[in-house]
């Protein structure tokens, strides 16, 4: 992490421990659910205290749902929105005060290429990520005079446990993989490391003139 101190927030203790082991001694962990604003506020306060302040945040929590809008229940819709959209809102709302104290800061929200492409049977997810892109742009406009930047990353299909679960649950793994690559030039999955490097760029000084942008990292997908 280029010498940065990193506070990890997750609702899974196992996931936190695994990530902390990968990062090493420069990391600390806070157990919290991004759907709970009170828990997020407490987590941000704890992280700020342990690190002596906060000057950047990356919101990466997310959930997927493969269901037509007609068949999506109210509870399923709310669950997707509560994690993909409300979660980043809660974190950003809690962390902005700390960024103001630092006199600078960066916000990076992990959205999705699906924010720009109407995908049948993926409506709740597409809607949540499109809203997250716009929320990030509004944050950038509101915070631009405070030396706080906000950008979003819009990945294509990244090989994560969530994607593996989708492939494993498919009746035809080969066909489903081909569907992923149908409109994607590189014809491969992206990696978590590739997205992490873009997030690192957006939190660092090399992107100092960049705010309100939505960065596509999708292997040449045709979303627009």
TrEMBL record:
It comes from the Bacteria. GO terms for molecular function: oxidoreductase activity. Pfam families: adh_short_C2 (PF13561). The keyword Oxidoreductase applies. PROSITE patterns: ADH_SHORT. Keywords: Oxidoreductase. InterPro entries: NAD(P)-bd_dom_sf (IPR036291), Sc_DH/Rdtase_CS (IPR020904), SDR_fam (IPR002347). Signal peptide: none annotated. Belongs to the short-chain dehydrogenases/reductases (SDR) family. PANTHER family: DEHYDROGENASES, SHORT CHAIN, OXIDOREDUCTASE UCPA. This is Short-chain dehydrogenase. It comes from Bradyrhizobium retamae. The lineage of its organism: Bacteria, Pseudomonadati, Pseudomonadota, Alphaproteobacteria, Hyphomicrobiales.
